[in-house]
């Protein structure tokens, strides 16, 4: 398919899990009505609240959150990227921060578990430690579909260009970045980082974000956007819950990759830091 319509949903997720999922499912209805072939959601789509409840709200991959999204994918025959939710880990106090891609038949195509976790310590004082509650994934994930080859990532991953370069070298041409960027970092870093990842990898970037004040968490920045392979922001959300759409043009992407063949000129043997 040379073109497809992507929808990216900006949400103000709180601590009522089913209420959050119900709003997300309504966005799938809206995306289908807008003619979208693909719809994506932000990080922590189903729950943002006290961290000591992460294990309580976590689910297996075949749990109710994925099943409800899968039913919508089947109903409208479109791809659904669930954003991320907390996945249960047997015999562990921690969870995975996991995203799932569902095909138009509602089948689980692939899964990504957030690789880079946000831990920060300044002057010996722990400011934030995501790894206390969340276990890291270990794999870069690319997913080939009839629409595009998607590269999967989550939020803090955005600050690690090697992950995106790896996915691009494996064929990814549309990068997904479901996020919950804080207001403090988002106002200065969100758009420049998204545009950089698009330009570096000559890829589209679809970045659905969280917005608003959160229970037991920092205020989030929002500004959900879609960036093209030239680094142009082709769609951006306002400061509210809403869905945006953009046409993903694979012929345009290939044109830009022919004009600047940086992916072919990469010399990974030089960059090896091991």
TrEMBL record:
<dbReference type="InterPro" id="IPR003010">
    <property type="entry name" value="C-N_Hydrolase"/>
</dbReference>
<dbReference type="GO" id="GO:0016811">
    <property type="term" value="F:hydrolase activity, acting on carbon-nitrogen (but not peptide) bonds, in linear amides"/>
</dbReference>
<dbReference type="InterPro" id="IPR045254">
    <property type="entry name" value="Nit1/2_C-N_Hydrolase"/>
</dbReference>
<dbReference type="InterPro" id="IPR001110">
    <property type="entry name" value="UPF0012_CS"/>
</dbReference>
<protein>
    <submittedName>
        <fullName>Carbon-nitrogen hydrolase family protein</fullName>
    </submittedName>
</protein>
<feature type="domain" description="CN hydrolase">
    <location>
        <begin position="4"/>
        <end position="250"/>
    </location>
</feature>
<dbReference type="InterPro" id="IPR036526">
    <property type="entry name" value="C-N_Hydrolase_sf"/>
</dbReference>
<dbReference type="Pfam" id="PF00795">
    <property type="entry name" value="CN_hydrolase"/>
</dbReference>
<keyword id="KW-0378">Hydrolase</keyword>
């Amino acid at each position: 398919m040379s073109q497809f319509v992507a929808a990216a949903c900006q949400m103000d997720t709180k601590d009522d899990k089913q209420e959050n999922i119900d709003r997300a499912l309504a966005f799938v209805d809206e995306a289908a009505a807008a003619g979208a072939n693909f719809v994506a959601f932000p990080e922590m789509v189903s729950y943002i609240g006290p961290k000591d409840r992460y294990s309580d709200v976590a689910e297996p991959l075949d749990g109710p959150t994925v099943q409800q999204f899968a039913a919508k994918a089947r109903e409208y025959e479109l791809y659904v990227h669930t954003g991320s939710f907390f996945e249960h880990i047997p015999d562990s106090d921690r969870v995975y921060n996991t995203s799932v891609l569902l095909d138009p038949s509602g089948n689980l195509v692939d899964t990504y578990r957030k690789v880079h976790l946000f831990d920060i310590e300044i002057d010996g004082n722990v400011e934030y430690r995501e790894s206390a509650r969340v276990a890291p994934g270990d794999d870069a994930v690319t997913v080939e579909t009839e629409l595009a080859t998607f590269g999967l990532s989550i939020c803090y991953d955005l600050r690690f260009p090697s992950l995106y370069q790896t996915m691009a070298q494996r064929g990814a041409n549309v990068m997904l970045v479901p996020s919950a960027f804080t207001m403090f970092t988002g106002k200065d870093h969100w758009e420049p980082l998204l545009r950089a990842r698009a330009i570096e990898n000559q890829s589209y970037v679809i970045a659905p974000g969280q917005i608003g004040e959160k229970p037991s968490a920092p205020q989030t920045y929002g500004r959900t956007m879609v960036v093209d392979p030239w680094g142009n922001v082709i769609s951006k959300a306002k400061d509210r819950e809403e869905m945006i759409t953009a046409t993903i043009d694979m012929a345009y992407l290939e044109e830009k990759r022919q004009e600047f063949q940086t992916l072919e000129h990469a010399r990974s043997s030089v960059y090896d830091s091991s």
